[in-house]
From TrEMBL:
Species name: Gimesia aquarii
Domain Nudix hydrolase: 3-133
UniProt entry tagged with the keyword Hydrolase: yes
Swiss-Prot/TrEMBL GO biological process terms: DNA repair; DNA replication
Family stated for the protein in its record: Belongs to the Nudix hydrolase family.
Protein name: 8-oxo-dGTP diphosphatase
Reactions that this protein is recorded to catalyse: 8-oxo-dGTP + H2O = 8-oxo-dGMP + diphosphate + H(+); 8-oxo-GTP + H2O = 8-oxo-GMP + diphosphate + H(+)
Cofactor(s) the protein needs: Mg(2+)
Length: 137
């Protein structure tokens, strides 16, 4: 990685019944148009786990519990160097997971369809892991 500052990013990989919560990056954001999991930059005194849970609530309105870190990636993009902490999460309240449609632009996507989406390069090994683990019928 280069000498520029590296951003710690907490990412909530929210799984429920073999489906994942996926959004599309805003047109004005870096990597615009790419698919994404909820997540963002960690605050100075915040763990990546805490960040993933907080960012998921802020971005989707969904409260989640972080179960375990399932992948860590360092990647140098043109716009920034990133340390990506991917946390497997599950919704806290499951009764209304699929009926509550107010997820602020995020949608539930079956694992078997993740390979059809356009994710940033740093997500490649994670997507392969998720498909191999969750896409079997």
């Amino acid at each position: 990685m280069s000498a520029r500052k590296s951003n710690r990013i907490g990412i909530a990989v929210v799984e429920y019944q073999r489906q994942f919560l996926i959004g599309v990056r805003d047109a004005h954001a870096p990597l615009a148009g790419f698919h994404e999991f909820p997540g963002g930059k960690c605050e100075p005194d915040e763990s990546a786990e805490q960040c993933a849970v907080r960012e998921c609530l802020e971005e989707t309105g969904l409260k989640v519990t972080a179960l375990q870190e399932i992948r860590y990636e360092e990647h140098a993009y043109d716009h920034a160097d990133v340390q990506l902490h991917f946390w497997l999460c599950q919704p806290v309240e499951t009764q209304t997971v699929f009926t509550d449609q107010n997820l602020k632009g995020f949608h539930w996507i079956p694992a078997k369809h993740l390979l059809d989406l356009r994710f940033p390069e740093a997500n490649k090994s994670l997507i392969e892991l998720l498909v191999n683990t969750y896409a079997s019928e």
